[in-house]
Design goal:
Blueprint lengths: L1 H22 L4 H7 L11 H33 L3 H24 L4 H28 L4 H27 L5 H16 L15 H7 L7 H29 L3 H17 L1 H11 L2 H19 L4 H29 L5 H29 L2 H26 L14
Helix pairs in contact: 1-5, 1-6, 1-7, 2-3, 3-5, 3-8, 3-9, 3-14, 4-5, 4-7, 5-14, 6-10, 6-11, 6-13, 9-10, 9-13, 9-14, 9-15, 10-13, 11-13, 12-13, 12-15, 14-15
Amino acid sequence: MQSRRDRAVLSGVVFAVLFAQVLLYPGIPELVAALGATPAAWGGNVGAVLDAGKWFLTAEFLGFVLFASLWGALSDALGTRKPLIFFSALGGGAGYLSLALLGQFGSVPYDLILGIRFLQGAATIGAFSLAITTLMDLEGGHGRNMGAAGLAIGGGTALGSPLGGQLYELGPFVPLYGAALALASAGVLVTFATDHTPSTSGRDLRAILGSIRTRPAVTVPFAFGFIDRLTAGFFALVGTVYFQSTFDIEAAGTGILLGAFFFPFALLQYPMGRLSDRIGRLMPVAVGSIGYGVAIIGVFYAPTVGVARVAMVSVGVLGALVSPATMALVTDLASPDQRGVAMGGFNVFGSLGFLTGIVGGATVAGGVSFRAAFLAVGLSEVAIALAMLPVLLWLDVPSASVNLLDRGQ
């Protein structure tokens, strides 16, 4: 009963973090212009629009990359996660609030805005990564726990996209205030959870970071996490600009299109996680990734908004098949006293993927074409599945959260 309550509370924290993050996505071009980015972003040049949003998104994810493992290692070393989640959530909320307040002045250097965005990301990743890690610590099946995390991730993004689009109608800084409130709520919510961090006997941070080398197989889900989050970064910026320039829609319409992906992605996370507990991680991760990549390419070839919405639904369904099984595989392959740093590493690779999706996607779309960008992203998802298939066959964890490495691998 306690695990069920903690699962709900921690899922709520994950939900709040993703909800806050995605609130900003439907109107990124409008937001960065209001915060002081180059006015050329509104000059009708698609490349300029992509460039204006690229650095704002990149600054946050640099914070994610540099601090995700540090938060995880610190929690493993201290033997506690709950207070770290609390303070990192409040820090992230303060970052969002600072951006909104500074944006009101209109003459703040954009470099300062990017610096605060970086600090906001460094704080926010602590709440996100450690809440998922605490879910990993719960009993009840790794697929179930990671399915709950995936449901929260999908739910936050599903509601954040359409609501964010509506909030932009009220003003460019309104989503920032909403994000600050969501992170503050996450900090309050985590106080109701129980800390299940395994005892680590005060191990040194460097020793914990180094100990992950003893279980190199955990880098397999890291690789899938990189590519999966690459697609998310791609849609956050390139997808947003593509939809607006191709279908002539505003932030509100873009939010609905993004929501067509995130709603099925959210609703199916938990049952798909349970499914991976029963049938193993191989089919959801490998087969799901191939279908996911093909579906992403299909979005580009959608001739109308209606068809694009259907294509985005299919991307969401297949993404829901892949995501919880991949996170559960991290749990399967990491020892209990290394889960914080393992999930931190997973989020580092994921954040690097998101950065690659933003920067690489914007570079290809602006320098070559949207078609080339969609093909590159979709085919990369297919390629990682085919390349990793032999390794997945070797590592596959069929059920009951069996840790193959503990059986002598």
